[in-house]
Amino acid sequence: MANAQIPVVAVGPLGDGPVQVSCPQCHQMVLTQVDYSSGLLTYLFCGGLFFCGFVLGCCLIPFCVDRLKDAKHTCPTCKTILGVYKRL
Ligand SMILES: [Zn+2]
């Protein structure tokens, strides 16, 4: 099976902001580092705006809005991915 997914350590409910968790990898209390990546909702928004008749440039706006993006939590100490918060 070609599963290219990065192993994710689930540490509990994650929001779209940094949370304090006990890292299962390095066993320290850390404040997660959050990376925002364009998720499904971003693309839906993009498509939605596009079909509403916005000019091409406007439909790229969702890609600049962190609120619409998936939040990936990583441990700042050992860089382990602790979880991904998805919008959908
Ligand atoms: Zn860690």
What does this structure look like?
There is one protein chain. This protein has one domain (20-85). It is 14% helix and 24% strand. The chain has one helix and five strands. Strands 3-4-5 form a three-stranded antiparallel beta sheet, with no helix packed on it. Strands 1-2 form a two-stranded antiparallel sheet. Strand 4 and strand 5 form a beta hairpin. The longest helix is centred in the middle third of the chain and has 12 residues, at 40-51. It is elongated, with a radius of gyration of 16 Å. The two termini are 26 Å apart. The structure holds zinc ion.
Structure at a glance:
The protein has one helix at 40-51, and strands spanning 20-22, 29-31, 33-37, 70-74, 81-85.
Secondary structure layout:
Elements: E1 20-22, E2 29-31, E3 33-37, H1 40-51, E4 70-74, E5 81-85
Antiparallel strand pairs: 1-2, 3-4, 4-5
The chain binds zinc ion.
Zinc ion binds next to loops.
Protein name: LITAF domain-containing protein
Membrane topology: Peripheral membrane protein
Transmembrane segments: 40-63
Shape: elongated
Strand tally: 5
Structural class: alpha+beta
Number of helices: 1
What are the bound molecules? zinc ion
Which H/E pattern describes the elements? EEEHEE
Q: What is the count of distinct domains?
A: 1
pLDDT < 50 runs, ≥5 residues: none
Order the strands across the largest sheet as they lie in space.
Answer: 3-4-5
Helix percent reads 10-25%
How much of the sequence lies in strands comes to: 15-25%
* Overall residue-averaged pLDDT value: 76
Major β-sheet annotation: 3 strands, antiparallel
The rounded Rg comes to: 16 Å
Q: End-to-end distance, in Å? A: 26 Å
